[in-house]
Design brief:
Layout: H1 19-37, E1 49-54, H2 60-71, E2 75-80, H3 93-103, E3 106-111, H4 116-123, E4 128-133, H5 139-152, E5 159-163, H6 170-181, E6 185-189, H7 198-208, E7 213-215, E8 227-230, H8 241-247, H9 255-259, E9 266-268, H10 289-309
Parallel strand pairs: 1-2, 1-3, 3-4, 5-6, 5-8, 6-7, 8-9
The structure holds phosphoric acid mono(formamide)ester.
Residues 58-61, 132, 141, 270-272 line the site of phosphoric acid mono(formamide)ester.
Length: 312
C-alpha cells in the first residue's frame, strides 16, 4: 500500500492531516486488523526501534504502541515516568530528545506541556508521534476513535455527541477535526465551565464552515446520537481543585440513560473512565470502548508502518 507520503513525517496534531492521509491510514489499519486477527507474525519493521518517552502516566497509548511495534517485528526502548532518567538531574527536553534520536528510528512521546510534541518534532530528524501533550492534542487516539466509528457505525452521515470535559480533554480536541473532516454531524455536551475551547471551534468553523451545537445536558442528545463519545473529567488539569469538585459527577451514563438512546447507539470512551460510565453499561451492546482500545493496536501498527517503514 502506498504510504501517502507519510514516511518520515511527524504526527503532532489531527489538524495537520489531510483527508487523503486519514483515508490511507484507515485503509492500512484494516489490513493490520486482519493480520492481528489471523495472528500472523510480521517483520515489516524488523531491525527498527521505537522510543516511547512517557513523561506522564499511560496504560493504553504506551502499551498499544509497544504492542504494535512488537507485532511488526520491531523493538522498543524508552521510559514510563522520568524516575531513573537524567530528567531528574535537570536535563532539558531538547537535550533528552537529541540523545534519543541517536538510539531510535522514531519517538512516541507523552508530555504534560502543551506544544512539547511540536518542539520535539522541530528538535529531532526522526519522526515524532504525539501521544498527548497536556490538554492540547492526542492525534493517534482520534485516529483510532475514527476507525472504531467506521467499523461500528460507518462514517457517512453519522451523528456523534462528544460529552464531558471538552475543555481539558485532548482526545476531543483532536477527534473533532476528523469528525468534521468526514462531514459528520457533531454535538458538544459539557458543563458550561468545560466547553470546547474557542480557538478549536474557530478553527473548525474556518476549515469546515461548521459550528457544532453546544448543549449542557445528555438528555438532549441520547435520542439523537449514533455515537456517544464520553470523556473523563480531567482532574489533573484543573488549576483549582474546588472547580473540579463543582463539576465532578455532573453527568454519567447508566442503564437508565440507555433506555432513552437511539436504537443501535454505541458508546465510546478513550479511557480511563472514573464514574462517567457505570459498570452496568459494560455488558450492553452499546458498550464499544474496550473494542475501541483493541482497534488502537491496528491503527498504531498502520501509523508505525507508514511513518517508519514506508511502502509495503
Ligand atoms: N486513551 C488514553 O490515552 O489512555 P492512556 O492515558 O491510558 O494512554
Amino acid at each position: 500500500m502506498n504510504n501517502m507520503g507519510l514516511k518520515s513525517k511527524d504526527m503532532i496534531s489531527a489538524a495537520d492531516l489531510t483527508k487523503a492521509e486519514v483515508d490511507s491510514i484507515l485503509k492500512e489499519a484494516d489490513v493490520m486488523l486482519s493480520h492481528i486477527k489471523r495472528k500472523k507474525p510480521l517483520d515489516m519493521l524488523k531491525g527498527r526501534i521505537l522510543a516511547t518517552l512517557f513523561f506522564e502516566p499511560s496504560t493504553r497509548t504506551r502499551m498499544s504502541f509497544e504492542s504494535a511495534m512488537h507485532r511488526l517485528g520491531g523493538s522498543i526502548i524508552g521510559f514510563s515516568g522520568t524516575e531513573g532518567t537524567s530528567v531528574t538531574k535537570g536535563e532539558t527536553l531538547r537535550d533528552t530528545l537529541r540523545n534519543v534520536e541517536n538510539y531510535a528510528d522514531a519517538i512516541a512521546m507523552r508530555n504534560p506541556i502543551e506544544g512539547s510534541a511540536r518542539l520535539a518534532a522541530d528538535t529531532v530528524r526522526i519522526p515524532v508521534i504525539n501521544g498527548g501533550d497536556g490538554s492540547n492534542q492526542h492525534p493517534t487516539q482520534a485516529l483510532l476513535d475514527l476507525f472504531t466509528i467506521k467499523v461500528e457505525k460507518g462514517l457517512k452521515g453519522t451523528k456523534v455527541a462528544l460529552c464531558g470535559d471538552l475543555k481539558y480533554g485532548r482526545t476531543v480536541h483532536s477527534l473533532i477535526y476528523l469528525l468534521c473532516m468526514y462531514g459528520m454531524d457533531v454535538r458538544l455536551v459539557s458543563p458550561k465551565t468545560l466547553r470546547m475551547p474557542k480557538h478549536v471551534l474557530d478553527d473548525i468553523k474556518e476549515r469546515y464552515s461548521y459550528a457544532p451545537v453546544e448543549e449542557e445536558s445528555l438528555d438532549g442528545v441520547v435520542g439523537w446520537a449514533d455515537v456517544l463519545y464520553v470523556t473523563r473529567i480531567q482532574r489533573e488539569r484543573f488549576p483549582d481543585q474546588n472547580e473540579y469538585e463543582r463539576v465532578a459527577g455532573s453527568y454519567f451514563v447508566d442503564n437508565e440513560t440507555l433506555k432513552k438512546a437511539k436504537k443501535g447507539m454505541v458508546i465510546l470512551h478513550p479511557l480511563p473512565r472514573v464514574d462517567e460510565i457505570r459498570p452496568e453499561v459494560d455488558c450492553t451492546s452499546c458498550a464499544k470502548y474496550f473494542e475501541q482500545s483493541f482497534y488502537g493496536i491496528a491503527v498504531r501498527m498502520a501509523l508505525l508502518k507508514m511513518l517508519i517503514g514506508g511502502n509495503g
